[in-house]
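To: structure subgroup
Subject: Chain for Friday's discussion

All,

I'm putting the inputs and outputs inline so they're searchable in the archive.
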Amino acid sequence: MKRLAQKLSLVLLTASLAGCSMVPDYAAPKITMPSTYQGPASDTGVKANDLEWWKNFHSAELDALMTRALSDNFDIAAALARIDQARGSLRSTNADLYPQASASGSASRNRSTSSGVSRSATGSASLSYALDPWGLYRAQSQSSSASLDASIYDAHATSLLVQSNVASTYFTLLNQKDRLAIAQDSLKASRETLSLIQQRFDAGLDSGLTLAQQRATIASTEATIPDLQSQVNASRTALAILLGVAPEGFDVKESSLASVALPDIAAGQPALLLTRRPDILQAEANLRAANADIGAARAAFFPTIDLSASVTQLATFGAAPVTSNGITGSLLATIFSAGRLEGNLESSKARYAELAATYQSSVLTSLKDVEDALVSAEANIHQEEFQTLSAEESRRAYDLSQSSYKAGLVDFLSVLDSQRSWLSARDSAAQARLGKYTSAVTLFVALGGGWQS
């Protein structure tokens, strides 16, 4: 056994001295990044690399929903499982970098009329090692390691998408509750007007046409309520799925978007996207894996060298044990592959070129996402301001038209028009308010959200 250990030490020493790399030197594709964003950007707001960016909306309920989603969402669970798959693949690939040991044993008992009973036992142990002089196995390990990184970045991207969907769906649900309350409040006001018209009709001061027009308005308002209730239910069930729970019986406590604060977001510098956006980092990790695959494809043109050592001991009952050991080496070289090796190398290089273009496209798309989100956020703020002003003035016009109608100064058509305008303006203002929140979420995600390397 001592001689075998010495031989195995020689094997490992030889392996450690051998080896070169066929992997090309890696450098990320050059992309000229702008110094600043063209869209309106604040430098004093909330930084986008806050790990829990949603807490800047100061909503305890949103915080609780997000915590549950990050724990129980099935898309995130699937992404984490893909990380474990990639980690297992890397471990399997790295096994080729180390010696492989095996052992076997057997025993027998034979009876014959001439010699009686004989017993024997055999035990053997072997150690093999594949030398990596051309860096084939190391290149494969580099590729698997980069693929593991890509799966980790993919999980972060999935988590960020889930966070975005939870926040957007929650805000949408609260906004739909606001719109439902507006419709119900408008319906109440319309019924009060109908009561006034009914009194005037009974007194002979109004025609049946006025009464019919107001009843038609009430019916039109009532018709919007079931659709709004359906939208509320759809958002409620969608939010439940994001949290990984059954939608039956699930609901949120808050009833208005007014309970949520709107943060001011600092966009930072465009170059930060290269280190903050998980989709960009995933694209670069895939590119590094493809670069290592080129090295593996190159190394496949060269012979593989395997070394092995073994020891066997045979023990027979009544005789001295017999021990044998040895060390062997083998070389395998491809002489003719009908273009298979060349095709693999060509494919690897083309794959790298594809992923380089994908990486560059991801960077440019990220810049577009931020620019669009900045402009949208600014536009939604102004839109909500004007829509709110419109709703206030519409309410004032409605009150004035009612007073004038009671005094006999205007006909009912003026009241009807102002009534419809008021309902429409309030609903539009509510939708514009939602736009401010959803654009803020979009901007957080475009800037990389809460992910940090």
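Points worth raising on Friday:
The chain is about 60% helix and 15% strand.
The two ends are 50 Å apart (CA to CA).

D.
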